[in-house]
Fold this sequence. Notes:
By secondary structure, this protein is α/β, with parallel strands linked by helices. The chain folds into 2 domains: about 15-50, no CATH class; about 50-155, SPOUT methyltransferase, trefoil knot domain (Alpha/beta knot, 3-Layer(aba) Sandwich), CATH 3.40.1280. It has 7 helices and 6 strands. It has helices spanning about 15-30, 30-35, 40-45, 55-60, 85-95, 110-115, 135-145, and strands at about 10, 45-50, 65-70, 80, 100, 120. It is globular and about 50 Å long.
Amino acid sequence: MTFGIELCYIVTPLTKQRQISEKLIHHWEHGYGATYNPKRSMALKRVKIISNLSEMLEEIKINGDPIIIGTSSHDRAAEKMIGYRELRAWTGREERPFLILFGTGWGLTDEIADLCVKMLVPIKGSGEYNHLSLRVALGIILDRTFGERGDRHERDD
């Protein structure tokens, strides 16, 4: 909600992970959490747990074929790279929905990366080891792309 994202899919083929996620969401939407923090409940109504990418793509196609953007912690397919400002401008002039894919663990598979029309430039720190938790990477990328100061962000790589 902070960045105006309409819907967030969590895709996992693992039944137990989907069950845990659904239980957590239920707590914040219907359990004690709904009265404790109603805004969190509103945000979690925008989260959908799903078992596979194909199912998600079929749902998204209702509004037109999505433009799929991938992320990676390393340079991947240089000809497909896109910066945050460029993506922000593109989303502002395009009618079709955008889908930004984030991998976990070992990142996106080659098969999934091949579905992406563009890959966001990686987040790079000054250290030798380039790894961020998914939660941190999501926050940085959403801020750089859709944040209030995203158009003034100095680094576009």
